[in-house]
Amino acid sequence: MAVAQVFIQPSYGTPEARRYGATTLDHAVSFRAAGYAGLLDPADLERLDALHPDGRARFWGATAKHDRRMDTVATGDVVLLTGRKHVLAIGEVGHSFRAPAFARRLWAPEPGKCLWSNVYSLRGYWPARIPYEEIWALPGFTTGDNFMGLRFLDPAKSAAVLALTAAERRPG
Fold first, then answer.
1. Which of 54, 64, 112, 164 is the most exposed place for a label (fewest CB within 10 A)?
2. What total of structural domains would you count in the chain?
3. Where does the source fall among the domains of life (predicted)?
4. Pick from 89, 118, 120: which is nearest to 8 by CA?
5. Number of C-beta neighbours around residue 114 at 10 A
């Protein structure tokens, strides 16, 4: 069985990111609601409906410069959502897609901000408080690395992170 791809994404470090997170990570969004569903490609709406039958999901995203890497994100991949030198949440990806208008509607950025085109839903979300030191102690990681920017881990690092976070990701 293949190891899920793991990526690290800053999500709680800046005031702007915390505001976005309060909207789409702390609370599920009704993606079928007026103002949202019409901004989705019908195939993306169908996939979201299949993965989130109640019509609600948590979302996060990435900028266009990450398009190529985001094209590799699949259902079941795991994201470590970071800020303040901690992994503050762990998410399991539901559906990853490209929808700039949907992203703007989700996060209501100031003009010229949040130029995200990539969006992904989370079919699992677990608050956490894992200090970076615990990640640094894993094989292949570097002490003092503050995980700036979106980062995809290789299979060995992914396996180590999944082992470390297994207890956090158990249904509660």
1. 112
2. 1
3. Bacteria
4. 89
5. 19
Give the C-alpha separation, 91 to 58, whole Å. Answer: 9
- Mean pLDDT by runs of 10 across the 172 residues of the chain is 86 81 92 94 97 97 93 96 94 96 86 80 95 96 92 95 85 57
Residue 66 lies in a domain: yes
Instruction: Tell me whether residue 136 is in a domain.
Output: yes
φ, ψ for residue 34, nearest 5 deg: -55, 140
Q: In what order do the strands lie in the sheet with 78-83?
A: 29-30, 56-63, 116-131, 86-98, 78-83, 6-10, 151-152
Q: Is 35 exposed, middle or buried (0-12, 13-18, 19+ CB in 10 A)?
A: exposed
d(Cα 32, Cα 168) in Å, to the nearest integer?
30
Is the separation of the CB atoms in 55 and 86 below 8 Å? no
The upper half-sphere exposure of residue 75, i.e. CA atoms within 13 Å in the direction of its Cβ, equals 9
* Residue 23 covered by a domain: yes
CATH number at residue 70: 3.10.590
Q: CA–CA separation, 79 vs 149, rounded Å?
A: 13
Domain that holds residue 12: 6-165
**Residues in a beta bridge with 89:** 81, 127
Structural domain contains residue 170: no
Contact 17, 89 (CB under 8 A): no
